[in-house]
Amino acid sequence: MNSLLLTKRIHYLFKELQVTTRGFDKQFFQTLSNFSKIDLKINDIEDLTSPILKTEYGTLNSTIAIAKYLCSLSPINNQLLGKNSFENAIVDQWIGMSQNAFLSFNTNSNTNNNNVSVVKKNRLTFLRYLDSYLQKNTFFGFERISLADIYISIPIADLFKNVLDENYRRGLRSLVRWYLTCANNSTIKNVLGEPIFYDKDNQVLSNENNSNNNNNNNNNNDSNNKNVQITSESDISNNNDDDDNSNDSNKKDRDAKKKEKAAVKAAKAAKAKEKANLLKQKNQENEKKAQENKDQHEQKKIRLKTEFINTTIAGEKKDLSQPMAASYDPPAVEAAWYEWWLKSGFFAPEINNEAREQFVIVIPPPNVTGSLHLGHALTNSIQDTLARWHRMNGRRVLWVPGTDHAGIATQAVVEKKLLREAKQTRHDLGREKFVEKVWEWKNAYGDQIINQLKRLGSSLDWNREVFTMDQKLSKAVCEAFIRLYNEKLIYRDTRLVNWCCKLKTAISDIEVDHLVLEGKTMLSIPGYGDNKYEFGVLVLFAYKIVDSNEEIVVATTRIETMLGDTAIAVHPDDTRYKHLHGKFALHPFIDRKIPIIADAELVDMSFGTGAVKITPAHDPNDFKCGKKHKLEFITIFDDDGFINSNGGPFKGLKRFDARVKVIEELKAKGLYKETKDNQMTLALCSRSKDIIEPMLKPQWWVNCKGMAAQSVAAVREGELKIIPEQFKDTWYRWLENIHDWCISRQLWWGHRIPAYLIEIDGQIQNENDSNNWIVAHNEEEALNIANTRFGTDKKIKLHQDPDVLDTWFSSGLFPFSVFGWPDETEDFKKFYPTSLLETGNDILFFWVARMVMLGLKLTGKLPFTTVFLHSMVRDAHGRKMSKSLGNVIDPIDVTEGIILEALHKKLEDGNLDPREVEKARLGQKKDFPNGISECGTDALRFALCAYTSQGRDINLEVNRIVAYRNFCNKIWNATKFSLMTLGNDFIPTEQIQKIVSGSYADQWILSKLNNAIKTANEAIYNYEFGQATTAIYNFWLYHFCDVYLEIIKPIIRDTSAENEQRKKNTKETLYTCVEIGLRLLHPFMPFVTEELWQRIPRRLSEKSPSICVASYPTEVNEWNNLEIENEENIVSLAIHSLRHIQAKYGLPPKANIKAIIKASDNTTFEIFNKWCSSITVLAKAAEITIIPEQGQPPSCCAIDIVNDKIATYVILQGIIDIPTEIKKLENKSKTINGSIENLKKQMNSPTYSKVPEKIQQQNSEKLESLTKELEATRNSIQLFNDIH
Predict the structure, then answer these.
(1) Could you tell me the CA-to-CA distances from 658 to 524, 561, 593, 674, 818 in Å, in that order?
(2) Rounded to 5 degrees, what angle do the CA atoms 257, 262, 268 make?
(3) N or C: which end of the chain has fewer CB within 10 A?
(4) What are the tens digits of pLDDT across the range 503-540?
């Protein structure tokens, strides 16, 4: 790190502690300047904190000015400022509060070190307050971005960029989520650029608490040592100047003094180092002890699944005659429902057979070998939400389940099992017996993933379950191959493939991982024991020119491939080599002359030596060059990765052992030149982790050009819709540059290729000639074709290709093969094409594009009309889920809970390389120090959908899922309370539209319910699942539970006759909210909603046996009441203010306060009078008095100025310290006055006329509002002074 950056970061550390440079010892910075060898002025540091934005109109240097300028650039400027006067007030309230908070934390010039920790604590407390608010809300004030968000994001951005390291940010997840949402807003990003986070690896800022003082001490020690050294050198220099002609004796004295001073210096340095080491050791011990205490504390928090004995007979409806449990218990709630849904046929499309509309979707078939991870859980949560929503909307719904045979993965698993248990290879058994073993394994273990899908509540039609190796799907695969072959779209050719020497098969691009190496790296290779080999280097060596003393130097990252070199290419215009065109170089190890060719396309004469070795059989670029120049293709490896007979003296060596040996021999011949670091990307097999070797193999290929063009046109012309639309460009880029597709795999498990090589009169024909192959449904048909082609007079024998088809080939047929294609079955005619394909964006090309290409080609129709691509699930740190990192999570572990030791055990029992197990264990311990708490299926599903935001990856924080379990408990308790309130004799009314005559609270909650219904339906329809979950969550938690249930408690308790009708209306509204709220939530949380819905009474018109086939809620126009919602918003400001006063002064909830609300205009005064009883309940007050502007509150009141129209007072007779209260108001007055002065300064600026008119208007309004607030604050001060 350079010294200036170090100084700036130290400054930011002080900034976080709120120690300004003005208040800190200036000598420190002077010392630091000496230590850093820079000329640093204190003012340079102070200037770093000013927010500055240069615009076309001039420079803005205040947060509010920058925020308003950004608003003015947005096309929805009016919405950002607030749609009405109330929303304007909400925006102003958030800005005012945040402005006061941030300004109050800035210490003045007389700051001393004693109050540093207090100020730091206040800063972090405020940030945690913002974070807690955002745990329940998307933005500040509304469910959309506003000026308040933009204003707050500017200082927050500075903190995230310069101060708050990863340790802080982990405790502010919701604040980080909100900040990224704001920072990624196009208007803000275009002006301010990409959001930047502070690097946690910087040691100056990464430590908390004690580390601040330690860093200061260490810096001072280092500075002192440096000063000692400077002083010593100065003394020596002066002595030399004073006595240049001193004799030898004096010189010896000086030398002795030098040594003495050097010894003193060394002693001091050693002492300082020892002290620093002791301090470091002590800190490490403290940190370890703190972590142990934290672990013990966290251990108590881990909740594991409770045992529940399900007494319901499988498939029967659950017995709910027992009273509700005291709290939500996932195992008890989830028991029995899924089996009943299945037996009742609720998931079959025939349940809505008369429906005009239908919704059909096929599951992305998971590999039969695996178990579900959170990516699968996300996919199935989204798809089940859609299936249940469409089903509840009366559509005929079919969701087809299935699993993929996963050729490579399944064969690898069974081979490992066979070797482990029987010490046999598949070759020991033979093909037929080995395939039998695979089927045995599939039948024994293949249901694991099916059971997991059922555990998640997936409403799949299991009567239509398929497996890609089933007879029905195998028939489709065979037919597809034959049709494409007959249209000359499938052909046989020898080309380069991705070859895995460990698995001995070609693999697809999606099965290749890429490891980026920055330079020389020693790596372990599967099959090579503990040996490590060098990668990330460029080896330069020379070829001798035939009949010449010249040599030509070439470079390669794979020196062993020089054994297969068949040319050296140079640029035709390179004057260094023009005289060598057409000449030959001599291979140093093999009797081979290598031509020197000219190739302008391949060679960049400015790169390296300008000469390129050509190995056509082992490099994609060289392969093209070899075809172009008709070079010899020499394969030097066998299928196991050993050097074959073409490798001369290196025959029999493993390829990377040959790498070492070739270099040794080149050195011996004097041809080796040098080895350089070289950044490169290494291709690895995702299954075996072996290094991919490009190999020439005769394979079957699909010509994709025409099919790709059709698929591109389908999207361009709007026939196929891709969501999010940003992936259209990816679609076009991939398909417009598509290569032919290799579909051969050298495996035994899979769909064997229906192609037969001919043997005529005992002579097997050349397999590289396509004319020697017969493609047919079976051997009998192939023999008939062969006899027709070659005549019956010849003795013909057929040999079926031993290879199988790429798994993606059968998967590409999945949307129509599941319905019986190529046969015209009833299901095919009724359900194909499907409605939607929902999957992860990482397989857009490998699966989605191939389904579209094959569907259009083979059926003449698009397989689906819409593609929805969900984001990738990453861990809380943004890392890709990886077994080696230990961050792959089994959804069942989240639903049931698991301790850390059990997580470790899963790693040990898995297929992970033993060398990676320890790394994964450490990752698990870091992320889940004691394990994962039980959350239940509903909470997991809801959390995954809540995280979903189109186009953005999901950084999943498991603790957030725990919060949604608490949400389930809240719903449970709210429903339980509602049932107790309604009573056993309650019968709901039929006409829910007429429930509008209740109290203000009734009208308000119905309007909020209607908003949630509208938002949820629109959001699910548009695949905005995060918006839907937010709307439903907010209704249940913040509107229904936190407000409405509290308001109605006094009404329910009132047994007077005059209250009877009001109580009846309240019960109708209460029931309506619960019943509709459960149906609204059901697609996301199927189990808890079914359990509760079955317990509540029904309207007589409701005949649905299950909530999953009940109707989904739709808007009721009569419930819309914007006026009453705006009133409640104003009322909530006063309630929050009164609660704030109580919290501020530490008043207990049962204090029965007496409060006054002062309204400055008649409209607000009327609203508070109308809602007075509700305010009294929600504020937990004994008495609320509403007074007009001219009214005077009594003495000894705690005051909170809400805005220029509202002030709240709580009578604190005998418990308030009036002088302290006056001091607080005076500080607030100073803050407001400072804001006014800053605003006036901007408005009086010579360049202010260039500021957009809208911003000028906003500034004028803000100045007026601040002036009124300042006046109200001064009046309050005067009031306290009068009392005092």
Answers:
(1) 15, 9, 21, 18, 49
(2) 130
(3) N
(4) 899 988 878 889 999 999 999 999 898 899 999 999 99
